[in-house]
Amino acid sequence: MIKSIPFSNLNRAATVRKIAKEHFDIVVIGGGITGGGIALDAASRGLKVLLLEKGDFASGTSSKSTKLIHGGLRYLKQFDFWLVKEVGSERAIVHKLAPHLVLPEKMLLPLIEGGSYGKWLTSVGLKVYDILAQVSGDDKRQMLEKKEAMALEPLLPKKIVKGAGHYAEYRTDDARLTLENIKTSLQYGAEALNYAEVTDFIYSENRVKGVVVKDHFSGDEFSVKAKYVVSAAGPWVDELRSINNSKKGKRLHLTKGVHLVFPHHKLPVKQSVYFDVPDGRMIFAIPRGKITYVGTTDTNYNLDKDMVETDIADAIYLIAAVNNMFPSINLAMEDIQSSWAGLRPLIHEEGKSASELSRKDEIFTSETGLISIAGGKLTGYRKMAERVVNRIAKKMEEEEGKEVPVCLTETLTLCGSAFKKHKEVKKYIAEIYERIKADGFTMYDAWYLVTNYGVQTEAIINFYKNRKEKDKAVRMILSEVEFGVAFEMVQSPLDFFIRRTGRLYFDIQSVRTLMKPVILELQRIFKVNEEKAQEWKEALKSELKTHSDFSIERT
Ligand SMILES: Cc1cc2nc3c(=O)[nH]c(=O)nc-3n(C[C@H](O)[C@H](O)[C@H](O)COP(=O)(O)OP(=O)(O)OC[C@H]3O[C@@H](n4cnc5c(N)ncnc54)[C@H](O)[C@@H]3O)c2cc1C
What we know:
Bound molecules: flavin-adenine dinucleotide
Structural class: alpha+beta
Helix content: 25-40%
Largest sheet: 10 strands, mixed
Distance between the termini: 50 Å
Number of helices: 17
Strand content: 15-25%
Number of strands: 18
Radius of gyration: 23 Å
Shape: globular
């Protein structure tokens, strides 16, 4: 088992002092999945890496995806075979790197009278999908008759269902996948800092040789030297290209995607379904613990990138789509329990609509040497990182005669995993349940701990044993807070409730009942005054409202 490395804002001042003195091979801008993947790839090849994130890790798009590690079946329709082949093949690899965090998720694609795909096309499409992604064994697609499809998902519209395709995908928590990549990169000597915004570049002989950083913790500014600077800033890539005076030629095209969360009993699908929307698009309904989430939309976006919200029109669209496919379900606005909205950083193509734009990634190198990467998928992060680091390795070889090893990440188990197969994860969940049930915890609690933290659950249970709170739920969540502050750079209640635990999306009630002790604990740990604690509380309340209140008064 890999030992957790302290990764804490409690040591921040010392970390900043150290970073400012060093000379890095690579500075990576952006702590989303792309930046996290690059940091791990480069550090594991022996390069000296620093990753800088302006907000919290994964606070951009990488906490707001559909959270699927998938091959992108719909890209077959766009003849994007290369993309399907790459991300399709990546699914099994990413699962192997963290079987507790990237879980197998069978997908049902119902065949409906008048739907997008007929039986023949679906069968051939899924077969091509399997071949491109080299899917084998039980994971190969199956074509189901009407009766079999209805047995798997009784909520389907019996009158018009003709059968279904059943195929294998994986589900994850995007923010935790990002964080575990970053934490694993630390095992190979990388440094990473959240709340550290790159505001400018440092040049030497007209080449980018470092960055200017604004520390949002202290308000101070410092600079960092590096041989290469990579911008993996997602939707903000063009902002950094502008600062670098290199926003020429291709540019980003941002599209917004929204997800809605319902209590599972309100949308009790037995399994994940990928289904038709009357306008010709397709969306997912994905059950996950206590909830089912539904998404996504795909609309052009030109507003504030730091304030992307689900609006009423998005909610109406998704609810209508669900009610259309599952006629016995009458979802209403007040059933929405939570939601999230994110931006796809796609590459603009003249004349193409949001849904038609390719999801392929591209790398741009400016005249001054700034390397930017945009586009791509969560699923393909490892290959994107490999391409960026290969490019830098080639330059290092040409310019310094330095030999950089080939990419290793295909075999680098991520932090939190000591599992070879999903079966072992299931066994470990049962084991954890046995250890915590006497204190009133349920199988759900054990499942949550293991699928969130993997074997790092041991550290949380150790904290739990040493704490004294009488209320067991409070004691457990404060143990998670202790772990998050010591090993995951938690700095605020939002970091904790959104990006470390996913509770704001998947268990919003627990945020409401446990926010008070969590805020008090963070106040104690970080020794902040009442004013700051009040600010945290207001920020959390505002997030709770934004994510879950779709009443008329909100508009
Ligand atoms: C609605 C939706 C659903 C999706 N579903 C899926 C899916 O199911 N499966 C899949 O494979 N893909 C999916 N995707 C795509 C996937 O989520 C994205 O491709 C991926 O998350 C992009 O990651 P990133 O690291 O490039 O960008 P981001 O996650 O946005 O990271 C960029 C980071 O850079 C930081 N940053 C910006 N400027 C600066 C600066 N000046 N200094 C320091 N830091 C800076 C930002 O704060 C941000 O955290 C989905 C996307 C959307 C929007």
